[in-house]
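Collaborator request, handled under Task 6.
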Amino acid sequence: MVVGCPFCAIAAGRLEASVVAETDAALAFLDLRQAVPGHVLVVPRQHVEDIYAIDPALAGDVMQLGVRVAHALRTVFDSPGLNLWQSNGHAGGQEVAHFHLHVQPRRVADGLLRVYPHGLPAPTPRDALDRMAERIRLSLPPDGASPAPRSAS
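Structure tokens returned to the collaborator:
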């Protein structure tokens, strides 16, 4: 638990939240700022800053709860779509330094989260995609392991 972290305070019961589901490892509650009705946050109970710091097993626990919440949102809101979104770092739009998934029921033209504001990008040439895929493959940590923390530069 980290002092000053609102999600740690919610997980510890020191800050109010409208909880929709919980497990020993994770908690799901309605976001105070409902970008769309039913906007839920799913967080690990343990303080983990971002995706780079989360243990793969804990990430699985959080995702499993996210899947359960997604099914409930589809039932309750009869929404034709859903976004599952997770942000890391300032550049990625992370507002609270505690790993969390946003689970949002979506409707056509609801105006939320326009992924390609300038239109769909042109396809990248296959050889460039293959080179990028190779670089990523060579950098993957072993299955089930977390890589060493990145040094500050």
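The cover message to the collaborator said: "Residues 15 and 28 are 14 Å apart (CA to CA). The first strand starts at residue 19 and ends at 22. Please let us know whether this matches your experimental observations."
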